[in-house]
Amino acid sequence: MKKVVIALGGNALQKSKDQATAQAQQRACEQTAEQLLRIIKAGFNVVVTHGNGPQVGNIVLQQEAAATDRTPAMPLDTCGAMSQGMIGYWLQQAIDKSLADAGIPKRAATVITQTVVDPGDPAFRHPTKPIGPFYTEEEARRIMREKGYLFKEDAGRGWRRVVPSPRPVDIVEKDVIRELVENGHIVVCAGGGGIPVIRREDGSFEGVEAVIDKDLGAAKLAELVDADILLILTAVEKVAIHFRQPNQSELEEVTTDQLRRYMQEGHFAPGSMLPKVEATLQFADSRPGRTAVITSLEKGFDALLGKAGTRISARGSGVRKEMPLTS
Ligand SMILES: Nc1ncnc2c1ncn2[C@@H]1O[C@H](COP(=O)(O)OP(=O)(O)O)[C@@H](O)[C@H]1O
Ligand SMILES: NC(=O)OP(=O)(O)O
């Protein structure tokens, strides 16, 4: 049975930036669960991971707005844990309902996941990860002055707070996750790339103020649970070169060497497609026979059958255009 790690992008949880109520996000999770069900029904062993950028940023703002001496605001790592619990709860309910409706005797369970990072990671000095809502430039400059936060313009969509985003090094709960998956459970884990922690000298862990990139977290998770496939679901069906230019061309089958060359030529936007491409390269190159796929939520199942999406594999693995990734 093939093991697939599925990374859910922003549109799998929140249909638009204005749809941030619990009800709207739960509805989005229900639609996502319908797509996941098709993959589960086909016999794949499924591990689900997800982003948390909008959600963790909103939790931080809620914490700050209500903070008093008796109800202190929680730090960013704890807000990350809250976002994993909240999104995991929505996904569990949605996945369990679609499994029950289909008569499949399985359940989903969320593992609150800590991801080890390097305290010396240069990312701590150069915040890049956008979280929370979008602001106008004027609003962003006012908040920067008042709170000392850093804001950046996010891909032409508005200004967002940015926080450090160190690279994932290890996942503390990897053995638990592997065991649950191997026993046939649907595991939701490493949400938001995992709660960033550093390893103390005595072997215990301490949370740090950062948010890991969920695509890089998904690649590390896929490596550590020994997955066969990393499936990254986002808002586009295929990765393109010359994106949004008249000569745009969509990639279907690509080797890691080719994709790395396109990456070096600057075809993939930082903060959106670039981390996905980096994640697929890391995973597909980590062991022969591993395949990574980037596609839309709706095309996820077809992509596993070789009928959609961009499929990435290491050089020399002999992947053909229509080769299905049978379970
Ligand atoms: N070269 C590219 N090919 C395809 N999409 C690209 C490319 N560069 C940037 N994008 C954009 O990246 C988006 C995916 O990034 P993002 O929205 O951050 O992902 P997520 O689904 O994880 O929230 C796509 O919807 C697309 O608009
Ligand atoms: N943690 C993370 O990368 O979340 P988003 O994908 O929602 O930005």
Automatic annotation (TrEMBL):
Transmembrane segments: none annotated. Belongs to the carbamate kinase family. GO terms for biological process: L-arginine deiminase pathway. It catalyses: hydrogencarbonate + NH4(+) + ATP = carbamoyl phosphate + ADP + H2O + H(+). InterPro entries: AceGlu_kinase-like_sf, Asp/Glu/Uridylate_kinase, Carb_kinase. Coiled coil: none annotated. GO terms for cellular component: cytosol. Residues 2-293 form the Aspartate/glutamate/uridylate kinase domain. CDD domains: AAK_CK. GO terms for molecular function: carbamate kinase activity. It holds the Pfam family AA_kinase. This is Carbamate kinase. Pathway: Metabolic intermediate metabolism; carbamoyl phosphate degradation; CO(2) and NH(3) from carbamoyl phosphate: step 1/1. Keywords: Arginine metabolism, Kinase, Transferase. The lineage of its organism: Bacteria, Bacillati, Bacillota, Bacilli, Bacillales.
